[in-house]
Amino acid sequence: MKRLNLPLKDREISSLKAGQNLLLSGKIYTARDAVHKILADLLKNKRKPPVPLKGITIYYAGPTPSPPHKIIGSCGPTTSARMDIFTPILLKAGVKAMIGKGRRGKSVKQAIKRYKAVYFLAPAGCGALLSRRVTKKKLIAYKKLGAEAIYELEIENFPVIVGIDANGRDIFK
Question: What is the pTM of this model?
């Protein structure tokens, strides 16, 4: 498997192919439905988000509380299509990669191609195993949202598959 360090460089993103297996290491930011709406509203109102979006990777996950002596609880991917309505504006703001599960809508595929981004699939149903790939967890914003707050995670050898590459090729077609 090819190993990549985050944040991804444009040339790395453009070299990826739908269906390719990868191991990612570096920083990612969790964000689910509620946070996506907040971020989209901030951007529409020309306000600064709590995390710089340029070049980041967003993980559609809501980690469970950390058990004693563990960095994080289960942190598997959630269904990506729920974020589709907000994704184009986040890609326009500079987000370069997303990690989730499932198909994406036409507008997201077009935005991925337009902004030269990438959509990764993480193995569903493996949240406990994926948590072993997290080496650090830090609350960034929206603590009141609990598991759906924004967390910065440092990951090491986190397994993903390229679901949609920067040329719009889609593993689901």
Answer: 0.97
